[in-house]
Automatic annotation (TrEMBL):
Residues 23-42 are annotated as: Disordered. This is Lipoprotein. Residues 23-32 have a biased composition (Low complexity). Residues 33-42 have a biased composition (Polar residues).
Length: 182
């Protein structure tokens, strides 16, 4: 459990703190501190873990994260990598972030595209943007509100993504029972 909380905290720090200003960075660090103190919640039999934080001005930020439990088995030096899907609501704006603990998601300077499939529906292409610092271990999926609505009604989501020097991987997330009202 401590390893899971550590990984969850790491992903939130990496995926959530580089996109926003210093105040939001401080808020993210407060959220990861609360995660380390065991304040994440699991609802029902859901694989989703939830957290929220309040900044000094009274604004609340919300997070939901789900992990793919399988090692991606990328080539050295990334041979112990796991994938996460993070829904984040900062200042009323939703973001959907795909991240890996190790490895490099292949992309251009302005982003790229991946394939997504919900349940048994037809796969479709989703564009993404990178972080301002061009980190290659997480991406922001475009049209996040539309994708989040699909996540709320799906049982699984498969993401097909190209990794630098590791080829295309298909990563499945158990998305059943997502509760997201933000």
């Amino acid at each position: 459990m401590k390893k899971l909380l550590f990984l969850f905290s790491f992903i939130l720090i990496v995926s959530c703190n580089k996109k926003h200003n210093t105040t939001q960075n401080a808020n993210t660090h407060q959220a990861t501190d609360s995660l380390n103190n065991g304040s994440t919640k699991k609802l029902n039999s859901s694989k989703w873990e939830y957290s929220e934080e309040e900044d000094k001005m009274g604004s609340k930020n919300y997070y939901a994260i789900v992990k793919n439990p399988e090692n991606l088995e990328l080539e050295f030096p990334y041979n112990n990598s796991y994938a996460y899907l993070c829904i984040r609501n900062l200042d009323g704006q939703n973001s959907l972030i795909f991240s890996v603990t190790e490895g490099q998601i292949d992309h251009n300077l302005d982003g790229g595209s991946i394939k997504v499939r919900f349940d048994s529906e037809k796969p479709f292409t989703v564009n993404f943007t990178t972080s301002p610092d061009l980190s290659s271990n997480y991406i922001y999926l475009n049209n996040s509100d539309k994708l989040i609505e699909k996540l709320k009604t799906s049982k699984k989501m498969v993401i097909e993504v190209l990794f630098f020097q590791n080829g295309i991987r298909q990563i499945e997330f158990n998305t059943a029972n997502l509760v997201w009202n933000h």
